């Protein structure tokens, strides 16, 4: 018998209150042109100005082009990174020799920021669209890969030994022991990878794009439309948070046993 859990209204009120306080402080600082020495609000638009700019953006015919372009690039690069990251993570996590061979170049490439990849991506791919998808791919790949490796390596050896003693095949071992045991780490890597893919995409769009939220934000800066800069930042944050939240929800639905273990 399932028990009904009431929504935590107090938690939602505290979150809404913290956002309201931040907006109020922001409004006061921008209205008073507050100058703190290291930080100044003289040129920072107020929330009221940003809200007016947001209304204009949401009524603009370019809204769909900007948002759809960013979403297509993110999900294209992210999907490739998810397949490659999970596949290579499973192989590296299960084989020490393969891990020794592949982890060294991957660890060398991992710290390279997205901006540094852009000139090479422009030279490697025939179109700027493919180069931006590649930048998104590089951003999402490493969190997914490393979390998959750690998840596979963290599977209880007793479960593997028990499966072997029962005559488990490699396929059954993979799908019935390794993947379920590594699933929580894989889901975490997928959620982190989505956030980093948005970060990398926006960087690429600022330099190589013609449409997209990153391009919209950079264009607003070059035209000195300061409220639109913050609109672009907020849209990026909402899209990134929404996609990561959706991935976590899907992941939790696919691994219900993790909730049971946490609740114990």
UniProtKB/TrEMBL annotation:
Keywords: Cell membrane, Membrane, Plasmid, Transmembrane, Transmembrane helix, Transport. InterPro entries: MetI-like, MetI-like_sf. The keyword Hydrolase does not apply. CDD domains: TM_PBP2. Residues 67-247 form the ABC transmembrane type-1 domain. GO terms for cellular component: plasma membrane. It comes from the Bacteria. The lineage of its organism: Bacteria, Pseudomonadati, Pseudomonadota, Alphaproteobacteria, Hyphomicrobiales. GO terms for biological process: alkanesulfonate transmembrane transport. It is found in: Cell membrane. Belongs to the binding-protein-dependent transport system permease family. The chain crosses the membrane at residues 12-30, 74-93, 108-125, 132-152, 172-192, 230-250. Pfam families: BPD_transp_1. This is ABC transporter permease. The keyword Membrane applies. It is a multi-pass membrane protein. Probably part of an ABC transporter complex. Probably responsible for the translocation of the substrate across the membrane. Its main location: membrane. Gene3D superfamilies: MetI-like.
